[in-house]
Write the structure tokens for this entry.
Amino acid sequence: MAATLGARPAPGRGRARARHRLAVLGFMAPAIIGFVLFFGYPLVATVVFSFTKYDLINAPEFNGLDNYTFMFKDPLLIKAITNTLWFVVVLTIARTVFALGVASVIARLKSGVGLIRTLCYLPSLAPPVAATLVFFMVMRPNGGPLDSVLGWFGLDSPLWFSDPGWAKPGITAIMLWISGDLMIIILAAILDVPQEQYEAAELDGAGPIRRWWHVTLPTISPVLLFGVVNSVILALQLFTQAVVAGSAGSGAADATGSTKYLGFPDNSTLTFPVYLYTQGFRYFDMGYAAAMATVLFIISFAVTIVLVQRMRKNSSAEEGGPGA
Amino acid sequence: MTATLAKPPVDVPAERELPRRKRNVGGFLNWVATHAIGLALGLMFATPVVFVFLTAVMSDNQAFTSDLWPREWHWENFVEVFDKAPLFQYLINSLTYSLLATAGMLISSIPAAYALAKLRWRGRNLAFLLVIGAMMLPPQVVAVPLYDTWSSLGLTGTLWPLIAPYFLFDAFSIFLLRQFMLTIPQSYVDAARVDGCSEFQTLIRIIVPMAKPGIAATALFCFLFTWNDYFGPLLYTGEVKDQWTLSLALATFKGMHIVQWNSSMAVTFLTMIPAVVLFVFAQKSFVKGITFTGVKG
């Protein structure tokens, strides 16, 4: 640790600079070591493993592009990619629009803001496993609470997590329930919109909806972009909700051994990370899992670059003066 | 040492009242409409948990029915689940993981965040970009080689592969702490330096006390993230039952340990309590922390 740094004032400039360098190195040392061990090395190793056949027991065996060419012939992988793309599109749009809508309503409240904000935010702190089970119970067909409530209006509840067509919308509903963090971010941005802009718009005769459309939205657009990027990353990583919904839906809940529930029903919840996990850690086809991981890395890297550029633009705008 | 410092101007944008609108009929209807929607929203978010709670206190038989309201209140369900599964063991495992990881994070991330926020050095921007990159990386990308390494060290089946990294590097915590430290004016750091503080003293005596709200928020997020983690415990301890965390064990309750809805909902309800308690005690830190991840670049 950095505790060994000297405390005496530096007599010369050269020594001061050397001490400064030593301090930086001391502060950063754990992070640098950690980054190399847990990100640098495994990233390189993933790419290397992706050109091998490896089962964790026998030494890795080079097999060229086999893992990659197999991807094109693997119907389950294509299914997994389709599922993840579904979430990237639907979840991203739904989550951003939903969070924006809720935040816009909360921003207009004049009383009870704290309570309602808390109610909207709390679910996002629940363990994802618990949140999934909550919805699994509430949405269970044949006598679940949602089924009963829909029944009052003469509506039939879908089978949700037992129906290949409804499992993904069901998971999306869970993800919306726990999107409180994004709501808080958007809400803070809305409350941060300069008041004068609203007043100017009001003088021009703009009603609440037009003020929202012409003042609020453009001003908070950088935060909305953050929401989109953040949601895409969330969708790309979607794992826990898919596994738990699949296992609870199949009625064969089991953290180990059996793979029959993964993707239940009919592989409709088999997301890319779930399939990667299945291949790597259930069938111990580490080479193939590494190839999938490499693909996932390239995609999430591209998404991250979008975010970083947004942040750069933002911070340079902040330095340049008010306004984004 | 330095002279006593004034209260730090660490402030996030405060919530502001919207302008008072003219009280006319349209305005009143608008008020009712917005508040009705607001109330409906609050109810929508709260209702699922209310159903979970009501199911948890039902009798075994009633929990299978479509009743929404318990006929009798079986509070003992919350106690009996401890007999049906080794919940105490899982609780201890969860606490071990979350507390040790949070402690490790504080040791490793505070100095790194300080170096990234307040010290000037070549490569600092690149280092910060790498932190963001690591933060955005899906955990599945690096899982294969890491599992391979931990397995050759004989540590799979324990919680150590999950805890150890926090003592060196946790991207999200470094990121969040840096964002907080950026709001501390550089003049405090410079003043400490003029007074002859070493960088380490400046960190411990000036920055850490001033960044306390930020450190609290980061610790809360770290605790909750590890408490809620499912992929990590599944990957490393999935096959060793006595190492399961609550989150991991919970995923198996519906079906394996417990068939009844009331018991599985009782456990579900119990695992959500820590988050609620933490939030009630530290609401400001949470909101501040969340805001910081998104708004400030």
Remarks:
- Residues 1-18 of chain B have pLDDT under 50 and may be disordered.
- Chain B touches chain A through 111 residues (CB under 8 Å).
- Residues 85-294 of chain B form a domain with the MetI-like fold fold (CATH 1.10.3720.10).
